[in-house]
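Title: Comparing notes on inverse folding

I've been comparing how different people in this forum approach sequence design from structure. To keep things fair, I'm posting one structure and asking everyone to reply with a full sequence. Here's the target:
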């Protein structure tokens, strides 16, 4: 699957649940409380990133802590760009965040494409949210089908083989047209 197709899956989810899309960053307005929360998030993330960096320098290179530090640092820069409304910095931060996240997936040999597709599939089974009642989609609804992450880690191509419509046999788990529980 191409990157644009992955983006399309996320876009579909955002539209289904009435999350804002295609906003202009420079026209985004923050009230005083929102600005304070974004400033707090930025400073907290930078502080944690620096503490992790100092820990690595003091104790030697821990791969897990180094990967966490990179992701937190890029997230801090991304949040900061929202505060400053700098589109170039936002694109840089988001791209860097994707890069270090993918790097972490590579580091730990995670099947990230399959995982992402399964998360998309699962998220699209969530009930349509009511933004005023459930801004974070905590009430997933009766048709919600949780992501089959363990099956992916066990080598089963969940998205391709484990649907009621598909009668193919999964060569990894030998199930036929059903979820590998």
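Reply #1:
Here's my take.
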């Amino acid at each position: 699957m191409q990157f644009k197709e992955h983006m399309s899956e996320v876009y579909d989810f955002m539209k289904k649940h009435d999350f804002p899309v295609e906003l202009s960053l420079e026209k985004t307005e923050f009230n005083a409380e929102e600005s304070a929360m974004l400033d707090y998030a930025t400073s907290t993330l930078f502080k944690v990133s620096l503490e992790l960096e100092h820990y690595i320098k003091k104790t030697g290179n821990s791969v897990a802590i180094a990967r966490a530090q990179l992701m937190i640092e890029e997230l801090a820069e991304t949040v900061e760009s929202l505060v400053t409304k700098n589109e170039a910095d936002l694109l840089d931060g988001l791209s860097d965040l994707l890069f270090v996240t993918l790097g972490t997936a590579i580091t730990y040999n995670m099947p990230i494409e399959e995982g992402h597709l399964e998360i998309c599939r699962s998220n699209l089974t969530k009930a349509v949210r009511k933004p005023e009642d459930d801004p974070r989609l905590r009430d997933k609804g009766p048709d919600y089908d949780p992501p089959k992450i363990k099956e992916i880690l066990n080598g089963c191509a969940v998205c391709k083989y484990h649907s009621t419509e598909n009668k193919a046999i999964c060569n990894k788990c030998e199930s036929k047209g059903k979820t590998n529980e």
